[in-house]
Amino acid sequence: MKDQPLRTSVIGSYPFPGWLEFSAQHLDQFGSADVAELQDDAAMVAIQDQISAGLDVITDGEQTRFDFNLSFYGFIEGIALEPASPRRFGPPAHDQRGKHEIIGELKAPRGLGAVEEFQRLKRLAGGSGKRLKVSVPGPYTLSGRLAPNQQYADRYAVTEALLPLVRQEIADLVAAGAEEICVDEPSMSCYGFREDTGRFVDIFNRTVESGYGQARICTHLCFGNFKGHPVGYRKYAPLFPAFFDLHCDEVHVEMANREYAELEIIGEIAQRTDVAVGIIDVKSYYIETPENVADAVRACLKLAPAERLVFAPDCGLSQTARWAAKQKLANMVAGVVLVKAEM
């Protein structure tokens, strides 16, 4: 953004406090008012951690989403949740998350819940002076854990059924006053090497048409982060030039965990839109120093102008311990401030 060069931001999720994880396992012991208080308290913890770090853009930490996809599936009719993981022992990783059965028409008469999350964020942080951001998964990513059936023959058919649900949620977020909406599509970046990238662009653009031009539309393109593990072929080259045509105002790319491979792509993205660079490795417990961050920012400035650059962690922080997440965010902001002082 021209009025805020070298912005600092986050993707969306933030670690759950230990008490929230414990409470989530015992929700049957809480009343509805107790749960509402839990949700407010958890969101406030995430908000305050981000404000303390000095971020320019904050979220609610997705504290009321107990799972990235399952929380949204809870709002969608026609899904029977899988009773147990396909693999329950051994190292925790992506293959412990199976497919859920589709048992009817996919529809969401109550919306997908993101509007209520944004309203809570606005109520709790509206006076903070920070820019508020809300995220929703794109329909291709959202389709990933749903098993095709006779009605929905393949993943693309499931995606097309989910697309109008996400598009409506974006429209409802705009109507609720959301200024910054991130449409997360990590599945597109994970599988773009083997799929039709032009088809991905068409899916994305039809999804965001209800908000593009009315709110700041961002997208997050990473290579997966479940229990600290990626899942995709970790190269951005197969996505471009097709992804230059995405209808969005900010494209986020994962760089720190990949030792800044393909960093030159940010210069090409910045010719068309803002680029958010992942400069904090959420999969590592090495705490980047402000000097480490400053070096990365300087390298980015050689490729893209300051008014086009945003800095953030590689991915959401939900899979990183809170103590590490807090220090990583604080050091990220401090490193950016170092470079701002030089400028």
TrEMBL record:
Single Gene Ontology BP annotation: methionine biosynthetic process
Residue span, Cobalamin-independent methionine synthase MetE C-terminal/archaeal domain: 7-334
Cofactor or coenzyme needed: Zn(2+)
Record protein name field: 5-methyltetrahydropteroyltriglutamate--homocysteine methyltransferase
Keyword Transcription regulation belongs to the record: no
Molecular-function GO term, any one: zinc ion binding
Domain of life: Bacteria
Keywords: Metal-binding, Methyltransferase, Transferase, Zinc
